[in-house]
Design brief:
Elements lengths: L3 E2 L3 E5 L5 H8 L16 H12 L8 E10 L5 E10 L3 E8 L8 H16 L4 E7 L3 H9 L3 E2 L14 E7 L9
Parallel strand pairs: 5-6
Antiparallel strand pairs: 1-2, 2-3, 3-4, 4-5, 6-8, 7-8
Amino acid sequence: MTALRTAQLDLEPLSVSHADEMFALLADATLYRYIDHPPPPSLEHLRQVYTRQAVGQSADGREIWLNWVLRERATGLAVGTVQATVLGDGRAWVAYMLGRDFWGRGHARAATAAMVEHLLAHCHCHELMACVEQDNDRSLHLLACLGFAPAPADHPVRATLDATEQLCVLAAGAARPAGA
């Protein structure tokens, strides 16, 4: 797992030791308005989740799990996460979460852009996918800024989504905005 950098952030490969500092940030129920699961119920639960994720792949080896904790270089604080699940067919799911106190600073966009570049350049991905609630304007805007677009109606993954969800995709080689 490779560490990544942006102008203001270090993206550290996830380890179980990150759970202690991430628990308070991830316990904020506000972050889960558009997510299908609740905040971690305990520090021990988060440690167990990070133990599974830090393995870096599914038990059958068909999925590669890439997870980074975002650390603000100026303060040294852990401010969020970005993650990708790389599938064996050249596609990857991407996701991100940023602590509420750090919204509006460009961190989510910069970190997600760094992850996207890594996936396209080093992980043999030809399509990146993100599932977003249709009324999550902030996330839809972030993805659009990075060159993601709504998936076509015939995209095979769309059939598995809830009626309130939007599938956004970025194809390798697709034009992306400058700075994305």
